[in-house]
Amino acid sequence: GPRFAAMDPAYLNADGRIDFELVLPFVINEFVPIGLTGLLLSGLLAAFMSTFSSTLNAGGAYLVNDLWKRYFQPKASARHLIIASYITQILVLLIGFIIGFNLSSVDQITKWIVNGLFGGYTAANILKWLWYRQNGLGYFFGMLVGIATAILIPLVVFPGSGSLEELIRNFPLIFGLSLSASIVGSLLTPPESEETLLKFYTTVRPWGFWGPIKEKAIQQNPDFRPSSFQRDAINTFVGVIWQIPLWTIPVFIVFRDLQGLWISLAVLIACTLFLKFSWLDPMLKEEEPEEMPHPQ
After folding, report:
1. Count of alpha carbons within 13 Å of 46, Cβ hemisphere only?
2. Handedness of CA 186, 191, 197, 198 (dihedral sign)
3. Which of 75, 236, 243, 258 matches a 20 to 30 Å C-alpha distance to 205?
4. Exposure string for 159-178, b = 16+ CB within 10 A, e = fewer
């Protein structure tokens, strides 16, 4: 920390504190050899371009295929769709530039994504697994209201303040509005077909409020077994713990912390064994095909 701040005032922000968004450039400039610096920068640029290009292409594909072609030009030619994709990708790129120039830090957009957009679409995405009555339009309205709320709060509640703390505090509001819109939108529009719901329920076996569909599934197949909420919840909790050593083990190796390394390995092995007997074995047993009778 002190060395980082003393090397160059350019690494400090306006308050004289360390600008943590410049830590990576500082480390590359001060600690990485010249030859390796070029290789490292090439790898970082390649990773950035692959992510950037795929995201940009996906945005254009969503707008053209899911909106423009489906609702406005269903009989459009291939040439028309290609030109439309060029235009939409340019627009997405320009919007991204405008947003980028109006942000003060990466931390600002990260908080908005995590607390705003996540709150905006979390409710609709959770509800589709837990409630048989939700349909496509209910999902759409939940997403629309949630994302719109996430966009409006930074503009209306604290315009120009440069802080997203209000957005963090308003996460429950964003989530609640999105959930309400999804429920109301589903109830005011026709439900999904029973065939679609039965296929989804018997394939995924989700938790939640699936009473009528669950009864139909059991009527059609008396051997059908719904998922166990208690078992799945315990396995999910252990699975979350299982992932933590996967992050900490490399860190302890780098810092040569043998005690932390051995503890992480012990937790990883214990959770792996638990999931093997509580999750993997029962799942494989349920998927085993029934024995066919031998021909006489």
Report:
1. 6
2. positive
3. 243
4. eeeeebeebeebbeebbebb
Cα separation, 242 vs 259, in Å, equals 18
174 and 143 Cβ atoms separated by less than 8 Å: no
Map tokens 């991204």 to a residue: 96
Which residues make Cβ contacts (< 8 Å) with residue 127, sequence separation at least 6? 134, 138, 139, 142, 179, 182, 183
pLDDT single digits (tens) 69-103: 988 898 889 999 999 999 999 998 998 888 878 77
Q: What is the pLDDT of residues 40-74, one digit of tens each?
A: 888 888 988 888 888 888 888 888 988 899 888 98
Instruction: Copy the structure tokens of residue 198.
Output: 């039965």
**162/167 Cα distance (integer angstroms):** 11
Identify the residue whose tokens are 């992932």. 243
CA 162 centroid distance within chain: 25
DSSP state of 223: T
Contact between 141 and 185 under an 8 Å Cβ cutoff? The reply is: yes
Looking at the chain, how many residues does it have? Answer: 296
Rounded to 5°, the CA angle 264-269-274 comes to 125
Nearest residue to 67 via CA among 91, 51, 35: 91
Q: Which amino acid is at 199?
A: K
Find tokens 């009989």 and name the residue. 75
CA distances from 125 to 112, 120, 175, 183, 262 (A): 18, 10, 11, 12, 38
Q: How far apart (Å, rounded) are the C-alpha atoms in residues 56 and 116?
A: 21
What is the phi-psi region of residue 256: left when phi exceeds 0, alpha when psi lies from -120 to 50, beta otherwise? left
